[in-house]
TrEMBL record:
It comes from Methanomethylovorans hollandica (strain DSM 15978 / NBRC 107637 / DMS1). This is N-acetyltransferase domain-containing protein. Coiled coil: none annotated. Residues 1-130 form the N-acetyltransferase domain. GO terms for molecular function: acyltransferase activity, transferring groups other than amino-acyl groups. Keywords: Plasmid. InterPro entries: Acyl_CoA_acyltransferase, GNAT_dom. The keyword Transcription does not apply. It comes from the Archaea. Signal peptide: none annotated.
């Protein structure tokens, strides 16, 4: 999958999460897939950030264009398998600014994630490595289908700006969202709860 397709998936995710995403939400969500690992199943796509220097795997984007079909559950199961292979916890935030935050929170809780706190913008969830459970029946059908929506000139411009930023920016630094999540977790979670 090429970089332009990845940025477009990120913009599609932002449009699925927020009813009216801001320029910055679109820009960050276009950029994050360029530095992330992609998982997908049918109409669902998930991007995670993992780095050997970090103790956790971070879900940056997860969405599905078809709800209640089990596609996102299979994508999260693929991410869980990856976490087991890496022996790492999985961390995700859910925006409390989205009209879909209640559904997203219920989805993560149904899939074993525990809410460990909140701030004025997000709910913070973690799935501890030792608590990861995945179905014994593995469905490894991975979709390379590009999940795209119709794009405006503004969104195309954001895609190209994200690609330029990716090539200019040092690729060895963690994204801002990861730094924010990691800082919040270290500050608000007792050390023994996530070591």
């Amino acid at each position: 999958m090429n970089n332009l397709s990845k940025t477009k998936e990120g913009i599609t995710a932002a449009k699925q999460i927020y009813s009216s995403p801001s320029f910055m939400q679109l820009a960050f969500d276009a950029f994050y897939p360029l530095i992330s690992k992609r998982f997908s199943y049918a109409s669902s796509v998930g991007y995670i950030y993992s780095n050997p220097k970090l103790d956790q795997i971070y879900i940056i984007l997860l969405y599905s264009l078809q709800q209640r079909k089990g596609h996102s559950t299979e994508t999260i199961n693929q991410i869980k398998r990856f976490a087991i292979a890496e022996s790492k916890d999985i961390v995700v935030t859910v925006s409390n600014k989205s009209e879909f935050s209640d559904k997203a929170r219920a989805f993560y809780e149904k899939n074993g994630f525990e809410c460990i706190g909140t701030d004025m913008n997000h709910y913070y969830y973690i799935l501890k490595y030792e608590k990861i459970q995945i179905p014994t029946v593995l469905c490894d059908e991975c979709s390379d289908t590009i999940i795209l929506d119709k794009f405006s000139l503004r969104e195309k411009t954001i895609s190209y700006l994200a690609i330029v930023a990716y090539h200019i920016r040092m690729r060895n630094t963690h994204p801002i969202a990861i730094e924010t999540m990691n800082k919040w977790i270290r500050k608000n979670t007792p050390q023994e709860n996530y070591d």
